[in-house]
Amino acid sequence: MSEKLDTRESWKRRFLVWLVPTIVVFLQRIIGLTSKKVELGKEHFNSLYPLKKPFILCVWHTNVLYSPYLNKNRKLAVLISESKDGDFITGVVHRFGNGSIRGSSSKGGSKALKAMIVHLRKNLPAAFTPDGPRGPAWIVQPGVIAAAQVSQVPILPFHYECTKQWIAEKSWDKHRIPKPFTTFVISYGEPIMIPRDLDEAGFERERLRVEKAMLENKSRAEQKAEELRIKAGLKSNQSELNPETHS
Asked: In what residue span(s) does the DUF374 domain sit (predicted)?
């Protein structure tokens, strides 16, 4: 009896892992078709991807939901946690033409980091959420710095805001959920190279440098989105944004 229940639960789990990403991708495509894009700093992206140079796309966890859609078919290897939620994210990432490497700082992290470095050394791009999977929000963890240091591949900050969006206030990362007929404001920061030889203090300086660049890139997207809201006569999002990013 127990074996039958386990089999049934396993089947239900597999079905959900297929169904949820399928629905998410469908809804994202619909919203995408009704939306516009404004890109800031696109020259930084164009200095790498079209020339087939490897890089690490660095994305705050608050942008996890729509980043696969906005980066579809770029053959990115995305570092995704081994949690159950990670199974759903993996399904979305794969449906948008990218790959995945499973692992996190708490489980499978060392193995995942090695796999990511191997991928980067093949001159292929990758993607990290430097504050995921558990936070704290907008604090860069060491993994992405180590990957860039060992592989000698630049980090490319990426952030999006929307003129029409819900902000999940109760989530630890204040997740952005775009509304239909929105404008995506996509911002790329300058590529950041991490020196190969660093002592502990130097590593921390580089971590803080990347964190600062990521926050500045986030702020740039927020400010542009707010300008577009004011121009269109839409409700401001400023009161909902984390005040620490505007200091």
From this structure: 69-137
